Amino acid sequence: MNTLYTLLILAIAAGIIYGLYYMQKKHMTFTKRVLTALVAGILFGGALQLLLGTGSELITSSNTWISIIGSGYVRLLNMIVIPLVFVAISTSIVNQDASSLRKSALSIIVVLMLTTAISAGLGAGISTIFGLDSSEILAGEAETARGQALEETLDQFQSKSIPEQITEIIPRNVFYAMSGQGSSATLSVVFFAAFLGIATIGLRRKKPESAEAFTKFLNMLHDVVMRMVTLVLRFTPYGVFALLSRFVSTSNFSEISRLFEFVAASYVAIIIMFIIHLMILVLYKLNPVKYLKKASVPLSFAFSSRSSAGTLPLNVETQTDKFGVSNGVANLSASLGTSIGQNGCAGIYPGMLAVMIAVGTGVPMDAAFFIKLIIITAISSFGIAGVGGGATFAALTVLSSMGLPVGLVGLLIAIEPLIDMARTALNVSGSMVAGLVTAKRLGEIDMDTYNKDFEEIEEAV
């Protein structure tokens, strides 16, 4: 009987997926299909949770098959992230003025660091306003086990200072970095691609023929990789549906309700930081309403996938095609934003945890405490992995640097995925804002494209 019910659930899921395909055949816009998939995934997963209950074997067996679509799509995105970063950065350098690139990179990093510092202060402030106290949270077996594991992991982090973590951005073995291994893999590939591009520019003075031939090869490789990106992005609606339905159907809402206050405080902080992003755009005379409409697809996918790195192709496509940002700035901001200055995971979350744990352990919180917290959080945001779980390692770095116990991070294991969804969307928004601000400051944006009414170009995806 269970097999029959599982087949029925899969048949309904297949019907929804066919509906998304039918929308594509009817040439409905990409954004409408993604948002429809998001809503359908929430409703479908919620219905399974309501009818079958948490931990149901039927939900588990059904998700085993549905996850082929969601997990498969995320793996496809992860597959092309490193090649995309490599060709995007290298071609950006060889195809534009070196001084312009330096200005772009510096501006992007400054914006990312400043917004991370703001988000850390915001997280600390919201935690104080809500009166969050780690001593009031009762730990279950799962949380206790997670806390013990994090305590054991702390030795690894204590052996590496923040300067050492920054130094690790320089890859010892570029092929190892290109395999995506390590928390700084993306930044290591950015470094190598930039180094390669600079070397190619220098070669033009001594061996112009070789430099020209290699530049053509890089541009050809860029075209091939971007075609791969386009092919993968066509599966976005199906991936969003599968990811959201699995998350909602397997969420333990009783555990979430137990830690509701922290969830509420987190979302308040994230929403306020989103508003600050919009205020920054207004400051640079960029319409925030158009930003929200055009950024809806990458933000929706970031929310459902919990992967800043996986959202990178959508991030670049949105900045270039919908915002009118130059290829160089868009690729640089999207790539750097996966591992530097993540406003949600490396800013708000460590800031909230630091205050909550300080209150629970009786650590005095004066002005010096908050200043130290903001500075450490901003600096330690270098090299944070842009995948699920990156926030935990960001928190480990900040808390250990502040001299606070890290085992209490395990208390939040039950609600980590729920908060991480919004945090990841904020991370991606921060990288896009950095790209837009930099492009506006340096005149690298087509304002006609940015201000154009929101109409999707279906051929792009």
TrEMBL record:
It is found in: Membrane. The chain crosses the membrane at residues 6-22, 34-52, 72-94, 106-130, 185-203, 224-244, 264-284, 369-387, 393-415. Its main location: membrane. It is a multi-pass membrane protein. Gene3D superfamilies: Sodium:dicarboxylate symporter (1.10.3860.10). Keywords: Membrane, Transmembrane, Transmembrane helix, Transport. GO terms for molecular function: L-cystine transmembrane transporter activity; symporter activity. The keyword Membrane applies. GO terms for cellular component: plasma membrane. Belongs to the dicarboxylate/amino acid:cation symporter (DAACS) (TC 2.A.23) family. This is L-cystine uptake protein TcyP.
